[in-house]
Amino acid sequence: MHPSWTAQLKKRLNRLRQADQLPRVAVVGFGNELNGDDAAGIVFARALATRLAGQTRLLVIDAGIAPENQTGPLRDFGPDLVLFVDAVHMAEEPGTVRLLDWQDTTGLSASTHTLPPYVIAKYLTAEIGCEVALLGIQPFSNQINTLVSPLMQQIVNATVQTLIGVLTDSQ
């Protein structure tokens, strides 16, 4: 049994808080829109961006299949935490959401990306000095030339709402 991703994230955000300063958080969603539920990270980023527009301590990026192309905006923003969001094969029940440390992602399936998330995370921790975590969502289906499944859409919407609660509770 894994601790809840919300409890893990709250603990991390509280640790990153400095005096009365909230941590700066960048949420980077990625995946492939042409592979069904693999687009979960993209759908997540788009939904979060529309709901939390204008937050100065939050950056939301839809990175598509090439999150490494977003290192410039991440460097400019200077986050304390980069939270990758992606559909990840974790050998869990479909729809399972887990918060993973980037060091634990080397064996996870991410074949639709140009670079594996842990390579980008290693670069970001060295270059920016930030923490990196992956919010992984176990896909239902990654069929080529299909849209995100209705079940994954429901999981993404619920997870976005939960993350908004975690981020606003931390203020």
The number of helical runs is: 5
Distance between the termini: 29 Å
Radius of gyration: 15 Å
- List the secondary-structure elements in sequence, H or E: HEHEHEEHEH
Strand coverage percent:
15-25%
CATH homologous superfamily heading = HybD-like
> Structural class per helix/strand content?
alpha/beta
| Helical content class | 25-40%
**Spatial shape:** globular
Describe this protein's structure.
The two termini are 29 Å apart. 36% of the residues lie in helices and 19% in strands. The protein has five helices and five strands; from the N terminus they run H-E-H-E-H-E-E-H-E-H. The chain is globular, with a radius of gyration of 15 Å. A five-stranded mixed β-sheet has the order 2-1-3-5-4, sandwiched between helices. Helix 2 links the parallel strand 1 and strand 2. The protein has a single domain, classed as 3-Layer(aba) Sandwich (Rossmann fold). It is of the alpha/beta class and 171 residues long.
Task: Indicate the topology.
Layout: H1 5-16, E1 25-30, H2 40-51, E2 58-64, H3 71-77, E3 81-87, E4 97-101, H4 117-127, E5 131-137, H5 150-169
Helix pairs in contact: 1-5, 2-5
List keywords for this structure.
single chain, about 170 residues, alpha/beta, Rossmann fold, 5-stranded mixed sheet, 5 helices, about 20% strand, globular
Summarize the structure.
It contains five helices and five strands, in the order αβαβαββαβα. The chain is of the alpha/beta class and 171 residues long.
